[in-house]
């Protein structure tokens, strides 16, 4: 790609402008195997390989550690322990200082890294790790959240509380009330490319680290702290990741710091790549939650007051658990108005790996709780859950204040749901399914239509900023760099489309380059669905600066007013004449016009007071809805997703093809979370589902048999985002909830839809069958 | 082809890699094909996603001589040993792009349909779809989904990949493909490699042997009774990649054609399945004779594992959750084991003694499985229950073979389960509770309590003991409905024809 092509200076439209459904910029390289991931890079001469030694107990003091056989093993060059870390032995993302790179005297989960072996080959390093002799004095371990002290549990971070109105009084006064509990499991990211880092030592204090990370700046800071050097000595580069999904937001720190410490100590390049089992055991996952709810409602099904407690298994350290549990509370409303509400988080300490960011970041767990409440009310009143949903939707002019006191100003959920409901024939199909079930004693069908409203912006306000660097070379070709990272979502392509559009040049004139902390500093993680919103705007800002200089130059040189200088496809109209873009660039260079600019963007309008639980943390909301139909085998609990219809809001899409890919992929990942993806720890704290043989993400044959996905083409962002587009990474993940509810609907049919199945997630065939049994017994 | 001057043993492994011949006189018995490609050959289009044959990112094609032609099959290079490749043609993703730089039809279809996002799984999908397209240029959605059971994608949700797969043939036909056009040269090259000699590489304990024939295998094992026999390596591969176990010395038997294939004795109404028959090859024959068994095979592993794994291996490794033994035991299969020139044939169910213990002597190997064909009036069914429908390991698996008398009573019944005990095991108490009774719902319900006498299943990450027991009983209920009911669906099916 990016072959040198002759620009068409008579075209009436550029190739690759905003709104065009271009393929992913690396698609050709993906299919040929030529796309380079870190493990594919040619290793610099002398590269060594590191491997981590992991603890074998969940909680214990290290009494003795004999690594002599490790050191003597073939090929071993060095063995590193906590004492070999020149700077701070900490990689906690929020500065909690609770997450050592290598455990020193105390281990707090089974699988925690305690030493690193550096050898000539990866296999030698890996084999040597097995020779360690570590003695522990085991301490009592809390593995499951249920084991936490019910009264005064140990927390990893200060929890948030949201309150609006007097929820307790509203619930007690309500004509009807119900309480319940839901367990919703965690999720492994299962990025296909596991964690990896390659550190190359430089002169002085310098080190260059190639890291598979969504957050190069944080890795830079962690490496600097670990080495005890200024950040300027550390450069982090990432061209692409083989998937991230949040799993490489903070979790890359471990591998990058170990590689960098070893590289500087030995003055040789060092690469580290854990095996899949170790990657899954030693890195954090989506938080599993126990959600308690207490809700008061009227006889129509209108919610009057709601009280939620969201308890999360956080693992042994804070990591991002504060922000994750915050986001769960921010989404305990989903699309529903609670006249009075109280919601509290419990970020529980457990002796398991420290859980972390995962697409949705607590939001999906928050929404699962809200949808369970809707379902409970529907069964209590004998109504269709969709009716209860609609009854409780946020209004557009009233009933529109969230539990965190933000007014919902852009609500389009009514139109989304109405269109989808009609389009997918929800009502007719519900009747058809009832008729089918009446005649089918074993296989039962179920259907559910669930909505999503998802808040867009980092709730940590300072992260809502971005930078970009744009150079225009004298031949008119453009070098684009920004602080976002590419993990498959097509961010680079979207940002390049924005730059191409602004300059009105074909996209093959815009070169997308690896993200590096040396070009754009102090970046935020590519997370919270924010990649295009933030980096697109920063790149637009950079391009506009250069464009304005070109306009100034052309205006002055040709004596034409600025408003008569128009950028047309691959050319510029200056008064009555047209000049090729490349020619204008050359002229500008000759006239010593600066053809490079650093762009910047910060999201307006947002503010948040966590202590008070009030503010405007989200710039806007993204909306969508999905309708799923399943069939369930009531003898084994096995099920099949028969059909899914989705209508999703991405505002005015920068690239509808890539956005649709995010919606489809997000949906299937969300479905996997709630169906077959089950994390199981044994009583000793060992993760038993640590590889694809035991941890089951969806296959091609699990995707909906019929899968209709539409973008709401009429939607545009109410806020002036980049070309009025909306974020797309996380919101469609939540649509997978419709599958859980469709399964629940099928299960409920065995008891005449009179009992809420209270299906926990993931709804494995086992949980489904047990729910069927439970309902059959209860219905007798 | 051995000339008198040549030693009967070749000390060099030979195979084709894309357009080159590879000759290795020094290669470890546990060297995986993936590491060989990535580390030795620096062919880094093939990726490691899991190193256990479950994600498909490392998929390559392996072509083997098959009569006058070559069968190209997808395999997981992460658990395939280099030593098993003698006389094969390995094709990697690097081989696909045309000399002029244009993309292969499979690749172009994936690009045009947005079939890649992060791209890490993509080369594996390219190879999986390449393998499918060569054998089935106009596949159904069902065929595509089956071909992709062994490939995980975490980004796309698969929809665009399946759409691309449906469109490949509009970009070109397999007949124009180099692997088709150059087939006669490749056949000749592979024939030249297969010189009829035993291959032996390495020294002492740290060596591997590729026997030239079944007789040669018997001779090798008499000499080295403790050697590790490796066929498809879908299990032993993990001993190396996950547990770093030393497996040497190794005898790679996957290339012994005499032990591959199924023959039908029409008079005895019996199939004899060579131990090295792959799941894929077995399925093709079983579909004709025992369709319910064939359907079960579609749910074993992914396509790559079915191409590599063998029926003999599934039995010989003695796993309590192997998928074919319960079905074979229900069908009253027998097993022939060979040691030197001596053969013995035993009921298959007697082969499994205890967890990790089978009735196989040192130096003995599984040669063939004999499967009596069910009569027209025998009801046979086998059902696997797993967390994920495809490419998952059984939580449990139940197999049933029953004959009813003219009076509607159970004349004979054999029931066997996997995942319910330390070995694949018959439900003899349940059988006894059904034997001679009228085949009614009441009889079935009354027999359910007998499960407690037969099984005490364990709880693990795949299922709880409680679920295993309940689902096991429900499979008997399903079998009853299956044999007595009309048209209402008894199980969820993705494919209408199934």
Main attributes?
A: 780 residues, Aldehyde Oxidoreductase, domain 4, 3 domains, eight-stranded mixed β-sheet, five-stranded mixed β-sheet, 29 strands, B: 498 residues, alpha+beta, Ubiquitin-like (UB roll), DNA polymerase, domain 1, Enolase-like, domain 1, 31% helix
- CATH superfamily of the largest domain in chain B, please? CO dehydrogenase flavoprotein, C-terminal domain
- Helix percentage range of chain A: 25-40%
Sheet with the most strands, sense and barrel status of chain A: 8 strands, mixed
Strand proportion of chain B: 15-25%
Question: Which structural class fits the helix and strand makeup of chain A?
Answer: alpha+beta
Of all protein chain pairs, which has the greatest interface, and how many residues does each chain bring to it? A-B, 89 and 89 residues
Number of domains of chain B: 3
State the total count of DSSP E strands of chain A: 29
Main sheet summary of chain B: 5 strands, mixed
How far apart the termini of chain A lie comes to 67 Å
Structural domain tally of chain A = 3
Task: Give an overview of the whole structure.
The complex is a heterodimer of chains A (780) and B (498). Chain A has 18 helices and 29 strands. Chain A is of the alpha+beta class. Chain A folds into 3 domains: 147 residues, Aldehyde oxidase/xanthine dehydrogenase, molybdopterin binding domain (Aldehyde Oxidoreductase, domain 4, 2-Layer Sandwich), CATH 3.30.365.10; 189 residues, Aldehyde Oxidoreductase, domain 4 (2-Layer Sandwich); 217 residues, Aldehyde oxidase/xanthine dehydrogenase, molybdopterin binding domain (Aldehyde Oxidoreductase, domain 4). In chain A, helix 5 crosses helix 6, helix 9 crosses helix 10 and helix 13 packs parallel to helix 14. The longest helix of chain A has 28 residues. The radius of gyration of chain A is 27 Å and the shape is globular. In chain A, 63% of the residues are buried. Chain B contains 19 helices and 21 strands. In chain B, helix 16 runs antiparallel to helix 17. At the A-B interface, helix 1, strand 27, helix 16 and helix 18 of A face helix 2, helix 3, helix 4, helix 5 and helix 19 of B.
